[in-house]
Amino acid sequence: MSEKALRLGTRRSKLAMAQSGQVAEAVRQVTGKPVELVEITTYGDTSREHLAQIGGTGVFVTALRDALLRGEVDFAVHSLKDLPTTQPEELVLAAVPVREDPRDVIVARDALKLTDLPRGARIGTGSPRRMAQLNAYAQAHALDMETVPIRGNVDTRIRYVRDGELDAVVLAAAGLNRIGRIDEVTDFLSVDTVLPAPGQGALAIECAADNADLIAALGELDDPFTRAAVTAERSLLAALEAGCSAPVGALADLPPLSAPLERGDPHADEQIVKEMRLRGVVGTTDGTRMVQLSTTGPVPHTYEQAMALGRELATEMLAQGAAGLMGERAH
Hints:
Layout: E1 6-11, H1 14-31, E2 35-40, H2 43-46, H3 58-69, E3 75-79, E4 91-95, E5 104-108, E6 121-125, H4 128-140, E7 145-149, H5 154-162, E8 168-172, H6 173-178, E9 187-188, E10 203-208, H7 212-218, H8 224-239, E11 248-253, H9 255-262, E12 275-283, E13 290-298, H10 303-319
Parallel strand pairs: 1-2, 1-3, 6-7, 6-8
Antiparallel strand pairs: 3-10, 4-10, 5-8, 5-9, 11-12, 12-13
Helix pairs in contact: 8-10
């Protein structure tokens, strides 16, 4: 690779710029090269339509991939949960860095937690997955709440609460962490309440499949455990034939570590763990019907092992009627 700057393609949102900036710094350190951010506007950023109507979060990815394929940028950074499960042959996921907190969180008025919200509380989210699980949780615990579909960036969503239009909004912990606003969270939702989107909290660094030098350099940022976990989660999503805006939640974790890590125990990850648990959920957005299952197996050491774990759980979920709960299935 020559000494000219590497061009990193990124969406223009505050969150995308923050996470791309962090990746750019890491790439500078491993390559010794300058990295410039190339801002790319996507249809998902300019459209006012609901994401589910314009093809889900994959619309954010297409413009970045097009720029890569045209050679306008050398590599791109995506929120991994936005990536469609089919990988274009001309592109490669060169690195999946260490995952941030995968949980969903609530930003509510008066610093309220989910269970403290008043009767009839209105909770904003643009995600069918979050709607399905929150509505199911409310029904199981006799909570009176309404989920309201919203669009917009983090500022816009939090403003709905500040302006009194909504009682709370649901956001991803990872995004708020990356833009330095995690202190605005009023409640961290346990993954037992709301399973995150497949790949939530992880980033994907993508480049051209024929750029061997860049693939090798970016590979320094790859975290094998995060990659195994998100591969299993995305394999489940693909086997369910669900798109990235379908009401599907999935999380692969290491059972002995999960609770201590959520509590912030700094020594939790020093344990030797041999098993990975994969949990999946799919449900109707009104929360009336859910299929939620889990499976546990050895920590995958190869791509195929991780894929097999996801396919195995998807088969069990489909046998319990998961397909009928997703509305329009992706093909």
